[in-house]
Design goal:
34% helix, three-stranded antiparallel β-sheet, single chain
Length: 280
């Protein structure tokens, strides 16, 4: 259990920070040029890092915090970050990002201490202590949209392994609107491209090998738990753990190029990528 937890955490952290693992190369390598006609949004961020360790657990926060840019966008991103860190929305948390990250870690380590107490443990070994981490990173800026990805990790003391989530959210730069729906339909043709992306992710030769690897019926067009989102070179599908496969096989990510995804995108999403009033 100790070895499993540590190995998993080190692996996931390496995927997050270096992009050296199989799926991370696709979702973290420098993206292609922005969609034709787009220019980069003037959005500035600071890298906020907070780490707190106690005898009962640890917490880490890494945030690309917006410091300047279009006001509506900056306000929306700050609200998004705050609500991601705090279940109650963090309305009473100061606006200072370092203090925000500090209080997040304070709350998490306090909860870990309560958990250890409730389990009737007086002490806990360093390799069995609870762990919590949240990483909120800017992954794409374009003229009409920006996209953040969120990675969250949680390990409960004496658990078999940790739990984690990795997803993305796209915001419209003009007013900061969070784009909930990028696609307005899916069909067999689109899913053929998704299967192709999954084969590349898992490095398998054919659909039979893919079906054997996955734990769900891929003929049913399974969609990710979290909606697809926009990156500079296409629409990204980021499946959560257990969406398609066993825990140890991770959370597959693939990107459908815009020239393929365009017919399936909402008009609102097409306007963000290709320009206003863009039709199929």
């Amino acid at each position: 259990m100790k070895k499993c937890k540590n190995t998993l955490f080190i692996l996931l952290l390496a995927i997050l920070l270096t992009g050296c693992a199989k799926g991370a190369r696709e979702r973290q390598q420098p993206s292609a040029d922005p969609p034709k006609g787009n220019i980069t949004t003037t959005l500035h961020t600071d890298s906020i890092i907070q780490l707190k360790r106690t005898p009962q657990g640890s917490c880490e926060a890494r945030i690309d915090y917006p410091t300047s840019g279009p006001k509506a966008l900056v306000d929306a991103l700050r609200t998004f970050i705050r609500s991601t860190l705090f279940e109650d929305g963090g309305e009473n948390i100061p606006n200072d990002p370092q203090e925000m990250a500090r209080q997040y870690c304070e709350q998490q380590t306090a909860a870990q201490a309560r958990q250890i107490e409730q389990m009737g443990l007086r002490t806990v070994g360093a390799n069995e202590a609870p762990e919590e981490g949240t990483y909120i990173r800017l992954v794409c800026t374009a003229e009409r949209f920006v996209t953040y990805e969120v990675y969250r990790y949680s390990y409960i003391s004496q658990g078999a392994h940790g739990e984690y989530a990795d997803y993305g959210v796209t915001f419209r730069t003009s007013d900061g609107k969070r784009m909930s729906y990028i696609l307005n339909k899916v069909d067999e043709q689109l899913f053929a491209f998704i299967r192709e992306g999954l084969r590349r992710y898992f490095n398998v030769r054919n659909d039979e090998d893919l079906d054997e690897l996955c734990t769900v019926d891929l003929s049913l067009l399974p969609m990710p738990t979290f909606p697809p989102y926009l990156v500079s070179d296409g629409v990204r599908f980021h499946y959560s753990i257990y969406d398609l496969c066993k825990f140890e096989d991770g959370d597959p990510a693939l990107t459908i190029p815009y020239e393929i995804a365009k017919p399936y995108m909402t008009q609102e999403a097409r306007d963000l990528v290709f320009g206003p009033n863009t039709h199929r």
